[in-house]
Amino acid sequence: CEKGDVPSVSKKTGALVAFNATQFDSQYLFFKSLKGAFRIEGEDVSAPVEKYAAFVFENKAEGGRAIVCDIVEKQTEEALALWKNVVGGFFVVLKDGNVVDFPFLSYRARVGLGLDEERKTMYVLIVEEKNSTGLSYPQCGYLFKALGYSDAMEFDGGRSTALYVKGKNALASYPWRKALNAIVVFCDCLQ
Fold first, then answer.
1. What pTM does this model have?
2. CA dihedral of residues 57, 61, 66, 71 (deg, nearest 10)
3. Buried (b) or exposed (e) across 73-85, using 16+ Cβ within 10 A?
4. Other CB atoms closer than 10 Å to residue 168's CB: what's the count?
5. What distance in Å separates the CA atoms of residue 180 and residue 170, rounded to the nearest whole number?
6. Residue 69: strand pairing partners
7. CB-based burial, 10-23: b 16+ in 10 Å, e otherwise
8. I want to staple 175 with a disulfide (CB 3.0 to 4.6 A). Which of 30, 155, 162, 185 is the partner?
């Protein structure tokens, strides 16, 4: 995870893949602050918002079964305490293989992340609106379930949706709004 908008982070880090993550507060097109937990290498950048989920990785706990990454349903101090890196998002859409029901349906561009049961494989879902009607949160949950993942969550989507692969925009349109942070992938797992 890195501070900065996706195009800049992609270029600066040389990441294989970079996509936007935590939602943010804005006023008159000026982006002020992240709206949710964001921790890099143990340093808190922004505070948790309990109603939102988070992707966490690199457990700091000594001994016991090592967990490399996970999704926490609520950004509480207790849920985030042992994690070295925390990237806040919106909502869990798939929990233990079950699609989460939502009281409202909104069809938008989406950025989501799914994990398999063993927490060894991560899948990123990017849906843009330029050539589609977007997806609802439950539809994203059904896609992750169909792909065999047990848990999934959504990050900031909408007009912030961005995906860069090897430093180039992989979407049909450029992100309308620049995000304040990004998740970056450095491995050669796409080759």
1. 0.84
2. -30
3. bebeeebbeebeb
4. 10
5. 19
6. 57
7. beeeebbbbbbbbb
8. 162
Nearest to 115 by CA among 125, 107, 104, 106: 125
156-166 average pLDDT score = 84
* pLDDT of res. 93: 97
Encoded amino acid at 19, one letter: F
Which residue, among 154, 155, 174, has the nearest Cα to 164 in the 3D structure?
Answer: 174
Lowest mean pLDDT among 87-101, 102-116, 172-186: 172-186
* Tokens read off for 15: 């990441």
- Which burial class, exposed, middle or buried, applies to 72 when counting CB atoms under 10 A from its CB (0-12, 13-18, 19+)? buried
Pair of tokens at residue 53 = 């989920």
85 CB-near residues (< 8 Å, 6+ apart): 1, 39, 40, 41, 56, 57, 58
